[in-house]
Design a protein that fits this description.
alpha+beta, 6-stranded antiparallel sheet, 3 helices, about 25% helix
Length: about 300
């Protein structure tokens, strides 16, 4: 009888240690599985929220253009970081009345020079009719859609995803001539503003980028291929046409600069509305696309491109 009890006691101790070890391992595994699941869930939630913000930004810009909203003069900032007053276009006839004319009317009145070509507040190339339309050179754009054979920094949607250039979102605001920052509150209120120049190399939340919301900008699009952005060569318009209707450009350059025109300046078709700076072709029309990047907690998490006109 005593021998049996002694053997049972010798059996219980290692068994208890084994069970304790198994329970510890099980608890540790459950902790890491739970933690991984929580992190995955949080990442998924952030990604979904960023998609909603980007889509909201695209829809907002579509609504703004459709309703001929005036966004060019927005400089709503907190604290001492205030955007300086800037002229919306280089022509005096436009600058005098720009603040009272909606952005779509401005774009339609002067489609030969839709947006700024430089990240600058002064000088040739800093102006443009719609200040948040990116008309900078295609080879220098932060994000663009075009054939990789033409511009190797652009996203060629004709290629397989594995072969495409990845769109850049990190610190992209530093490379944009102008754009609109959309702060989206938890209540759903959207506050648009155009950040002051120069944009910080490392974006400042609340100034260059929203804490939660989106940044959006417009580009011209090839009407024959909606997957491709185009760069509109700045032209001299007929001054009499400003805000009164479209007419043929009167010259093939912007004053003394850029100095040459890729399109045939001696054979301007009567339907010409723009010159494609890279193909050298006259365009009787072009579409407008919006790029929108959704930000969650000050981090860019999703980018989309949508044709809005």
């Amino acid at each position: 009888m005593h021998t049996l009890v002694k053997n049972e006691r010798g059996f219980i101790l290692p068994t208890s240690l084994m069970l304790l070890t198994l329970l510890t391992m099980l608890a540790t595994t459950m902790y890491y599985v739970s933690r991984s699941s929580m992190l995955t869930s949080a990442a998924s939630s952030t990604s979904t929220t960023a998609i909603y913000y980007a889509e909201t930004g695209a829809h907002y810009m579509s609504w703004a253009l459709s309703n001929d909203a005036e966004l060019d003069s927005y400089n709503n900032y907190a604290g001492s970081y205030l955007a300086p007053v800037f002229a919306e276009a280089f022509m005096p006839a436009i600058a005098a009345t720009a603040v009272s004319v909606g952005d779509l009317s401005e774009l339609n009145a002067y489609r030969w020079y839709p947006g700024p070509t430089l990240i600058s507040d002064t000088g040739i190339g800093a102006s443009g009719q719609v200040r948040y339309l990116d008309n900078s050179p295609m080879e220098a754009r932060a994000v663009c859609m075009q054939t990789a054979a033409t511009f190797n920094n652009c996203i060629d949607v004709t290629l397989s995803p594995a072969s495409r250039v990845s769109p850049r979102m990190h610190q992209i605001s530093a490379s944009l001539p102008r754009y609109i920052k959309l702060d989206i509150a938890s209540s759903g209120t959207i506050t648009p503003s155009i950040p002051a120049l120069p944009h910080h190399t490392t974006p400042v939340v609340g100034q260059d980028i929203p804490l939660n919301g989106a940044i959006v900008w417009l580009v011209a699009v090839d009407p024959a291929n909606l997957d491709h952005d185009v760069e509109i060569f700045p032209l001299d318009p007929d001054p009499a046409s400003i805000y009164t209707g479209l007419s043929v450009p009167s010259a093939c350059s912007l004053g003394a600069a850029p100095g040459s025109c890729p399109c045939d300046g001696n054979n301007i078709p009567p339907t010409a509305q723009a010159c494609d700076a890279n193909s050298g072709l006259w365009l009787s029309n072009y579409n407008i696309a919006v790029y929108a990047i959704g930000y969650v907690n000050g981090k860019p998490s999703y980018l989309l491109r949508s044709i809005i006109r």
